[in-house]
Input
Amino acid sequence: MAKKMCWVIILVTLAVNVVMLHFTIEAYFGLEYNHVFGNTIFALISSIIALISYFYWRRLEYSNEK
Amino acid sequence: MSEKNKLSRNQKDTSDDMVNLVDNIDRQNDLKFNRRSFLKTAVAASVTLGVATLPFSIKAMLNDGDEEPVKVKIGKLSEVGKGESINFNYPTDQEPAILVHTKEGNLKAYNNKCTHLQCPVFYEKEQDVLLCPCHRGFFDVNNGHPVAGPPQRELPLIELELLDDVIYAVGRKIRHG
Output
């Protein structure tokens, strides 16, 4: 179950980061720089969550191997 | 005898017919394209997309985004009749803009690069809209917002000032409600 949760979290972060990159580019070209910074922070947090989930998944996945 | 014919049965690249039956099975691919690899790729993609936002923030940090208002003379009102438009550049020479004297008598100015793929935008007098002919994008001439076609964002609005029949561009709003 925990591994499935990792999958879900990673796929959600992927979707979030696609949207964040889109928003960031839009905000950058719209000269709304405070939104650019906000989106970047959100995207980086999302990336860190993806990495943490991946490392946790890897520990579960490979420790179960016989 | 050629090198190929020397290869014995069930070896890779042999001309033996039987080996062709298992040609589509490749152990290397089985190792490369599996569930674990998919997840690793998803993580890499997620992190890459997240990090890809960083250069925009760095660029934004280097340029604080506050444009100094520049006053630029566009032309004389008497030279632009109702339903006509003229082109100018604002705020720099690299940024083309369009001034429209609408049929109702209002003066409107926008940067005339379509927000879809940067094609020039023209005033369409008959329909009273701004038209991007590249992909048939339409913008409302009264507020610069997209009304049809692929563009999603509004055209940057250029603020105008009229002094003694002379029209000046005095500022710009990229996003304007």
Notes: Residues 129 and 141 of chain B are 5 Å apart (CA to CA). Chain B has a mean pLDDT of 85.
